[in-house]
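Feature request, filed as a ticket because there's no other form

It would be nice if the structure record came with a short human-readable summary line next to the tokens. Right now we just get the raw output. Example of a typical job, pasted below so the devs can see what we mean:
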Amino acid sequence: MYAIKKLNNNALICRDSTGAELVAMGKGIGFQPVPREVPLSEIERTFYDVGSSQLHLFQEIPDDVLLFSAKLIDIAKNELPYPLKPNVVFTLADHIAFCLERAKKQIHVKMPLAYDVKQMYPQEYRIGEYAVKQIYRQFQIGIPQNEAVGIALNILNGEVRTPDAEEEKRDVSDEAMLEDITAIVESEYHIIIERDTFSYARYATHLQYLFQRIHAGKAIDSDNLQMYGKMQDEFPALTKCVDKISAHIKAKWGCALSEKEKLYICLHVNRICIKEGM
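Raw output as currently delivered:
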């Protein structure tokens, strides 16, 4: 393996014998100067198809979290009936690193959709539960059991999807709806949202889950209309944007969103706008 660039003390950009570029990880392999030949015996893990926008993660995410996530995805690939995108390792590692930071600071996030995820996606949820247990064993940090939901959603978002028969019948596919909604946000806030970022990946994950609930007829029931009313008073621009999104979904899919679903969209639209420096 021929190393051409150092990413950190334990990760190098390399070329294999076929000339394909990859990232190699191994304890201490980045200490010596590059370019140089790296013995395969020193390499613990290789990652192919790593985009340029993902390389910074090798500096930002701890190596043990990246390796843990890679092993978890290996298990998921054996357990699930569908293929996963190559970058799912990095989105999952980013998510787990964030979970660990929250746990260290004793910040707990409620997961009101836990029951839905467990019922609709039992295989992914089971992998999430397994991950929570293994995180404690690996890092000696306990994260809440409901973090299994976030891990399951990350795996779901990593599915390599082809349109099914029901989706082909729709005027607008899930992918097109995601782009339509993002275009509405860009128009309302006069920003450009970068699609090739991890903040966008998280935003897309939650909207895809919203779409899945809509198609399954399991949208969140509205039981707190007052909260959305307060949002309208305090954040009129945000709720105006979300109302336009809701109207678009109704026009294309014939689904009227509840106030609680609008709150759900508000949360994630606000987050992506903050990430884009609104």
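Something like this underneath would help us a lot:
The mean pLDDT is 86.
Strands lie at 2-8, 11-15, 21-25, 36-37, 45-48.
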